[in-house]
Amino acid sequence: MALDTTDTSTTGNIAADRLKSIVDRIERLEEERKALASDIKDIYAEAKSSGFDIKVLRQLIRMRKQEPAEIEEQETLLDVYRRALGMV
Amino acid sequence: MALDTTDTSTTGNIAADRLKSIVDRIERLEEERKALASDIKDIYAEAKSSGFDIKVLRQLIRMRKQEPAEIEEQETLLDVYRRALGMV
Amino acid sequence: MALDTTDTSTTGNIAADRLKSIVDRIERLEEERKALASDIKDIYAEAKSSGFDIKVLRQLIRMRKQEPAEIEEQETLLDVYRRALGMV
Amino acid sequence: MALDTTDTSTTGNIAADRLKSIVDRIERLEEERKALASDIKDIYAEAKSSGFDIKVLRQLIRMRKQEPAEIEEQETLLDVYRRALGMV
DNA sequence: CAAGAATTATGAACCC
DNA sequence: GGGTTCATAATTCTTG
């Protein structure tokens, strides 16, 4: 009865149940993610109708993410290389 | 005094406040989005350690978003192309 | 005889020939691309054995690509701030 | 005078010359790579205007890189998962 | 709807 | 050699 998909006593179906659980949870979270994306889109639309430039606004937000990270880069060594290439 | 940036009664600062609000809300939602992405990643990791093939699992979830007719169509088309190249 | 794949007089086979040509050319170019990637990898390996830090070296090369683009970016951003404060 | 960057007799400048050579060669190869990528893109565009489905075409080319046994295995696995979820 | 940016997925490389 | 990060490829989304 290996292929009887109604027989929950088989290992095959234990795996099937597990797979279902995994797929369900992923799909659930993806929907929430999608809803948030929609909310974000709405805010951009609101910004646009308030006269802000969307493209530049995106750029601004991107920069705010990057700036803290950029501080502690391997600045020293990079600087040495840049000097070697006359990029000072 | 339209350019006096310390005067909160000017339209300039109303716009600035509006921009701040917009940026704050977007950043907040983006963080939630990021958290969800992390949760999804965790589930894939769990699936992997349960023995599922992640790549195939992703394909499966992608397919579930499509209409059955659409799936059928792409599969048929792929088959046509494979035959055309003798990949039967 | 619509499905006779040996009949070159059918439109189906004209399409098949076209597909073959397309696939062949793409695969050819991808091989060249792969060969170049391999060459680049070799140079990084050489750099490493000469004592250079590969990660920093990659960062340096990335920067050399971006720097010209960044000039314009900053100007755009300045404009954003001005607009946000109604200083247009 | 170890830090005199104008003194070409120092080991520092030997390293600088070496770095320059490395960076130059990498940048040269990356440009060639970029040109090939552009050529490939053009062929996909041509394929599209000839009526081919680009997404399926990409999948086909990906498959041609795999071993036939590997393709079969993934297709089988996908089928198993689909059945487990009742997607028949 | 085509072009381009932005996100996501896959593949490669490095470290432990 | 396994897992984690990094780099490239591909798809999706947005804008003109």
Describe this structure in words.
The structure is a homotetramer of 88-residue chains. With 88 residues, the first copy, chain A, is mainly alpha-helical. The first copy, chain A, folds into two domains: 7-51; 53-88. Helices cover 76% and strands 0% of the residues of chain A. Chain A has three helices and no strands. Chain A has helices spanning 11-49, 54-71, 75-84. Chain A is flat, with a radius of gyration of 26 Å. The first copy, chain A, starts with 10 loop residues before the first helix and ends with a helix. In chain A, 10% of the residues are buried. The mean pLDDT of chain A is 83. At the A-B interface, helix 1 and helix 2 of A face helix 1 and helix 2 of B. Chain A binds a DNA duplex (16 and 16 nucleotides) through residues 37, 41, 54-55, 58, 62.
SSE topology sketch:
4 copies of one chain form a homotetramer.
Chain A: H1 11-49, H2 54-71, H3 75-84
The structure holds a DNA duplex (16 and 16 nucleotides).
